[in-house]
Design a protein that fits this description.
The complex is a heterodimer of chains A (155) and B (441).
Chain A lengths: L4 H7 L4 E7 L5 E11 L4 E7 L4 H10 L1 E7 L6 E12 L2 H20 L4 H4 L8 E13 L15
Antiparallel strand pairs in A: 1-2, 1-4, 2-3, 3-6, 4-5, 5-6
Chain B lengths: L17 E6 L5 E6 L2 E5 L2 E5 L4 H9 L2 E7 L6 E12 L3 H17 L10 E11 L17 H12 L4 H15 L4 E8 L4 E8 L9 E3 L3 H9 L3 E3 L4 H12 L3 H4 L12 E9 L2 E10 L7 H23 L19 E7 L4 E4 L2 E4 L2 H16 L3 E3 H6 L12 H14 L4 E7 L2 E6 L2 E6 L1
Parallel strand pairs in B: 14-20
Antiparallel strand pairs in B: 1-2, 1-5, 3-4, 4-7, 5-6, 6-7, 8-9, 8-13, 9-10, 11-12, 12-13, 14-15, 15-16, 17-19, 18-19
Helix pairs in contact in B: 2-5, 3-4, 3-8, 4-8, 9-11
The chains are: A alpha+beta (155), B alpha+beta (441).
Chain lengths: 155, 441
């Protein structure tokens, strides 16, 4: 197990989630995700708007490689996970996850002084897909001396 | 419509962190937050990368990277395809980013941001706006600005000949014309390596005479580097720290005056007053609004700051009186007396136990009080002060006008029974309401 209880709890707390992929021409792609759910073992499911981020969704579907950064906006505690991703259509449960995520993240950002119209372009639940990531590594990325260090699998 | 980097200027204020995605040679991605992104020219951006070795390693295997930049005003997002060009470890772009990081570090406390080791420059190959529902984009707030208005403002400052009028006119332009609410003007004392507040507006206390050391806080960083420092969204920790500091300051005990500041400022800008390649001080403004100062504000303030610096340089250079002081004897003082205590070790002066000033300005006050006492004369010229043995003014660049203005302002502000009045160029009078009893410690 790479994801222990603490890390699993962090990934599904009100954190900003950013996904990167890679195209056939070695051009990286990028997207924001609108919520995460823990799957079996070291799997994490992310919901992404294909309308906003078509290149990333295509890249993950075609090549599979993903990196996902989770940052807590209050204190910049940051983790990055890496692994293989696969794409499926979103269902009603996924839509409900996005609604919960948008509500809690909006409240968190509001408390930090971000006006609602400013955060709106980051939280667009349109044409949703789910990326299931099989995590094979996790790194600490909180700004500071330990940034970038790989964490050992949890026991 | 093709987007250019100049359309993205609000993305470079650093309010909403930018992101960089890279991959290694096998295509395994990495995504990192960036502390600073700067537009170098029309087709290049520079990124600071103090923390994340993986990004640096990846771009050496695969020079293609993708940036996500966010406009801090509207929230709009932009995807940039970029190609790594080079790493800079010095030069003007490096200095610009280093100064900004240093200012943030000074504000948020030591160890919060690591020192800059290098700056990576990328060529921008494509800019795309990330789709978002159009109705969520608010119209940007734009203040009316025009070149004609700027010319008129700069001219008003340039029309002033003496230091006090230059500072007063500049503050009027900044508040009434530009709508700035909280402003400080600080002048550099190169001998002591400190900046001293000579003018202020919009604070509960004026803070005249308060000091910031070179290199400390955004004010000192801007003075040291000679570069503009603009901070668009200050951290909560910094605000809390400032509130604690402000509440525990007693100038009679510390012999220093607290620098005025908003405990809940979200934006700050510091523009150095540079003339003839020499930094004379800084202009500082802050606001409770996020993103209060944009690139245009920076440009306008830079023009005005240059004009102010030119005026200060001219005022210091031409401050000599044309005639010697008249030997008019001061009218006998009224019956009451007040105590003046001069502490030799730092030239601090207290009047009736109230801290007034220290350093050269303190020596000037004590010297003039001595002349009044010995000779009964209360009129002084810059020339005689420069020649006075006991004052130990520096031979060149004594900043005498600045020190006298500082003294005049402090005496006015503290409502003390003595005042320094300017008569005309290079000539002043020390008026006393009572008899001073001078003690030297």
């Amino acid at each position: 197990m790479i994801l222990d209880d603490e890390r699993r709890a962090f990934l599904v707390s009100p954190v900003m989630i950013v996904v990167a992929g890679c195209g056939a021409d070695l051009r990286p792609s990028i997207a924001r995700a609108l919520g995460a759910r823990l799957g079996a073992g070291d799997e994490v499911e992310l919901v992404v708007s294909r309308w906003q981020w078509p290149t990333l969704v295509d890249d993950v579907a075609e090549r599979g490689g993903v990196a996902v950064t989770f940052v807590r906006p209050n204190d910049y505690v940051t983790y990055q996970v890496k692994g293989r991703g696969r794409v499926r259509a979103a269902g009603p449960d996924d839509l409900a996850l996005v609604e919960r995520y948008v509500a809690t993240v909006s409240a968190t950002l509001s408390a930090l002084g971000v006006p609602a119209p400013v955060m709106a372009p980051w939280l667009v639940p349109r044409d949703l897909v789910v990326i299931t990531v099989s995590v094979d590594a996790i790194y600490v990325q909180t700004p500071g001396a330990a940034a970038g260090s790989r964490l050992e699998p949890a026991r | 419509m093709t987007l250019t980097l100049s359309d993205l200027s609000a993305c470079f204020d650093g309010v909403i962190p930018s992101l960089v995605a890279t991959t290694d040679a096998s295509g395994r991605p990495n995504v990192s937050y960036l502390s600073q992104v700067v537009a170098v020219d029309a087709t290049h951006v520079a990124l600071s990368n103090q923390f994340f070795g993986k990004t640096a390693a990846n771009i050496r295997e695969n020079p293609n990277a993708t940036l996500l930049l966010v406009d801090g005003r509207s929230g709009e997002q932009y995807r940039l395809d970029v190609h790594f060009r080079e790493t800079l470890i010095g030069g003007s772009i490096f200095d610009r980013i280093a100064a900004r990081l240093e200012a943030v570090r000074e504000e948020s406390g030591p160890n919060s941001v690591m020192r800059l080791r290098g700056v990576d420059v990328y060529r921008v190959e494509a800019i795309r706006r990330v789709p978002s529902p159009a109705e969520t984009t608010p119209a940007p707030v734009v203040r009316p600005r025009s070149f004609a208005a700027l010319a008129e403002q700069a001219s008003r400052i340039a029309d002033q000949a003496d230091l006090e009028a230059i500072i007063e006119t500049a503050l009027a332009v900044l508040s009434r014309d530009l709508g700035l609410e909280h402003v400080l003007v600080l002048l550099l004392d190169p001998g002591r390596g400190v900046l001293t507040t000579i003018g202020s507006l919009g604070y509960e206390r004026s803070g005249i005479g308060s000091e910031v050391a070179i290199g400390e806080r955004p004010i000192g960083v801007a003075a040291q580097s000679g570069l503009v420092v603009r901070i668009a969204d200050l951290s909560r920790e910094r605000r809390f720290g400032a509130a604690v500091r402000a509440s525990s300051h007693d100038e009679n005990r510390t012999r220093s005056i607290a620098v005025p500041g908003l405990a809940d400022a979200l934006s700050q800008i510091v523009v150095p007053l540079v003339w003839g390649g020499e930094t004379r001080g800084v202009l500082f403004a802050e606001s409770r609004r996020r993103l209060a100062f944009d690139a245009d504000d920076e440009a306008i303030l830079t023009v005005l700051a240059r004009q102010i610096a030119a005026g200060i340089a001219a005022a210091e250079a031409t401050s000599e009186a044309l005639a010697p002081p008249s030997a008019v004897v001061a009218p006998p003082s009224t019956g009451r007396s007040f105590r003046v205590v001069h502490h030799h070790f730092d030239d601090s002066v207290f009047v009736d136990d109230e801290y007034v000033i220290k350093g050269v300005s303190g020596r000037l006050l004590v010297h003039m009080l001595g002349v009044v006492e010995r000779e009964g004369r209360d009129e002084f010229t810059n020339r005689e002060l420069r020649l006075a043995d006991g004052l130990k003014l520096p031979d060149v660049k004594d900043n005498l006008e600045t020190r006298l203005l500082l003294l005049r302002r402090r005496l006015e502000e503290k409502s003390l029974p003595l005042r320094l009045l300017r008569i005309d160029r290079g000539r002043m009078r020390l008026t006393l309401d009572g008899r001073p009893i001078l003690t030297k410690l």
